[in-house]
Amino acid sequence: MSRDHVQSPQRSGEAAATGPKAPFLELLARGASADAYEQPVLLARAEGLSPERVAALERTKRLALRVRSEMEGRRRREAELSALFETAHDLAGLRDLDAVLQAIVQRARSLLGTDVAYLTLHDEAEGDTYMRVTEGSVAARFQQLRLGMGEGLGGLVAQTARPYVTPDYFNDERFQHTRVIDGGVRDEGLVAILGVPLMIGPQVIGVLFAADRRARVFEREQIALLGSFAALAAAAIDTANLLTETRSALDRLARANEIIRDRSGVIERASDVHDRLAELVLRGGGVHDVAAAVSQVLDGTVEFAEAVVTPAVALEASRAEGHAVRHGDDWIAAVAAGGELLGALVLRGHPGLDPVDQRTLERAAMVTSLLLLARRSASEAEQRVRGELLDDLLDARDRDPRLLRERAWRLHADLDATHVVLAARLDGAAADADQEASARRRLWSAASHLAATRHGLAAARDGGTVLLLPLDPGDTATTLARRTAGQLGTAVHEPVTVGASAPVESLADHPDVVGAAYAEGQRCLDALRLLGRAGEGAAAEDFGFLGLLLAGDRDISGFVGRTIGPVVAYDERRGTDLLHTLDAYFACGMSPARTKDELHVHVNTVAQRLERVGRLLGDDWQSPARALEIQLALRLHRLSSPARP
User: Fold this and answer.
1) What three-state secondary structure class fits 528?
2) 572 CB contacts (<8 Å, ≥6 apart)?
3) Fewest 10 Å CB contacts: which of 81, 149, 240, 338?
4) Digit-coded pLDDT (tens) for 457-473
């Protein structure tokens, strides 16, 4: 018997003399095997010690064995922590990924005491997994295995992202067996296999295995230890990938630096533009200051142009693409905010434009849009004040003329000048109430901007807007209405119909005329819509007394069709000109002789045409009542036709 299992009577007596703990403390100090802890109890019984003494020794033995087990666990954990620390140290000084992974597999095999340890990784390009590192393997086919996703024990680990262990690989039906995998495992002679996932975040990138060539049950502590090594392996792979990406980024940065050095002159010019534009913004410069600064840098003529005077196709292309576009020998960069076109920067006579200079023009357009938006934000308060003043002119009849003039003067408006009141309304169909409200806000914003630039007033009213604009010398209410309809329609990208009043004067002294003029403009607006001329502009002077007749909901086309429809259809079908003959006939006081002079035809031709009209309209068409209806229908038909420029 070994010295751990044999104790002399003398030592037994010593144990009895020193108490039940002494022999076990000596065994713990020597690191004796577990079997040696039975000897003190057996000797005590052989010597006939009292039952109480034997029971005390039994309790002390159990306690000593617990201490021994705890000491062995601590030594094992110290070894595991030391291995993990060494692996982490290797990872911190990562130079060779293969060397780090090999060290991880070696230490896992050593600490778990397995015959083989190995690591597989996913190959995203091939769509399978491959053996990356092995330790203790002797079979060449096993070392070269490539496994399809979801196959074998590793496939089960990858699918569930959880560790799996099998004490008997070939008799375990929880995972998919394949001929290739089973052949490689059989060549290696593996029986018990433990696999844990390699994870980067939520993604499984591979599996770390420990395997024995005999049946074995892996303890939970061993599974946890292999999982710790798997985490270090995943960190090593992630670190290596980051280093690779960093090196690639550094390479790209080096190439970019070469390009920057090659283009240093262009960059300096762009920097100069940036500095100038920043200075302009800080000191409150305007759009024309931006154009002047860019003109100096690009060595050309850059101008800010309103959207209505810029080539529409090129302007829309620039807005849609977000880049400056070439138009003949010019370059056009849209100045836009959201869906609204505010104008354009136009570079004149510069067909050959460097890409960086093109980008400079585009940035200048962006700065211009920001300046315009900032100015618009600053002027919104002024626009509200303008709207309040116009509301007072429309609604309050007893305002003090002096106060009205002062308020207008602060807004750069002159109420003593000749003005025109214009009623504007959108005619595009809105999909829902929100879109309709948004369209109305855009119309009010565009009208307010137009009123501010023209030293006028604007306010939202009756589902549309009302504008009070000064009438320039040589201009008419009709041309102002048509021009306003075009400007507002371009600004909001929808048809806008505008009805204008006759010119009005002395608004401060007679503010009640503004309300009457607005009513007149509304009647013109209603007349245009009834006549099917939505999106156009017209003034009261274009309708005469018919403007009063057209207010309300009347069937204009039905009246025209019932009255002169056969003549209209005959002209359209035969290509004749009976309508023009009727107009001339009534204009000449129903005199065939004067009519033939007006039309420059023979009197017989006039007679033949009037005879044809009589057959189409009836024999009583020249009676006073019928003649009045026919003349009115002719006038309405002419007004319903598209306006001629």
Assistant:
1) helix
2) none
3) 338
4) 888 888 889 998 999 88
